[in-house]
Amino acid sequence: MDIRHLQYFLEVARHSSFTKAAESLYITQPTISKMVRNLEEEIGVELFERVGKRITLTDAGWVLFSQAEVMVKSFENMKIRLADLMELKRGKIRIGLPPMVGASFFPKVIGKFCEQYPGIELELLEVGSKKVEADVASGMLDSGVVLLPTDEALFESYSFVNEQIRVVVHPTHPLAEQQEVSLIELAQERFLLFHEDFSLHNRIIDECVRVGFHPAVMYKSSQWDFLSEMVAANVGITLLPQTICRELDPRRFHSLALVNPTIRWHLGMIWRKNAYLSYATREWIRFTKESLPHMKSKASSSE
Predict the structure, then answer these.
(1) CATH architecture of the domain formed by 3-85
(2) What is the mean pLDDT of the chain?
């Protein structure tokens, strides 16, 4: 049995005539008669009582009629919804954005995307890069932004920002007189860092250890603005990307370049390699790749 058997059966039942049903469907009467006969043979019951040229539904026919209407309607709704998805009229995308990234790069991009595709729902999860990577890998998120490099065996990606991390200090701090500082010079400082689920946390710790000291971390947060306010209260120093440092009030903060070594904030959009991507997700990736100031890197397309 396929959906056409049910559609033809319903048409005959509504018209109480094979001839009229065939005319409404633009097919021949022998074709529709054969379809209904095949349906009766398949389910093992007579669906129509034929008295001369007049036909009526049998008891079994009435049972099938009520169920077939629901099934055909569901099938038609399914086709409509699939068409909507393919034409990007509806859908849902689950996206992971670290807090710094979401606030700095995505409000305008998300606004334009929602304006162009009002039927697509964006579900945003604000968590650290490590959590984003894990959730994209598990399929809980469709795509997300992480600190690069990432596992190329698991993810496809494109890069959209690659800039230096800067040191942020209180204006009265001795380092406020300098334009740059080497990492080893920060060995005695009190650090204010992001939580461990942010990849930047581990990267800073690892670099400190590599140059010869383990930083004294006074406080950890998931919000860059809270960390900067702690610096403003002269609790300690923090390390933030150039993009964030540009937003800081120079009367309340001083940022200086970190050298020997530099630590880079290299961000990319990722999605699972060799996994099914919904039409909406594919469009999100294409749209953001064109909208964000992406870098030339080993990027791959979802298409």
Answers:
(1) Orthogonal Bundle (1.10)
(2) 89
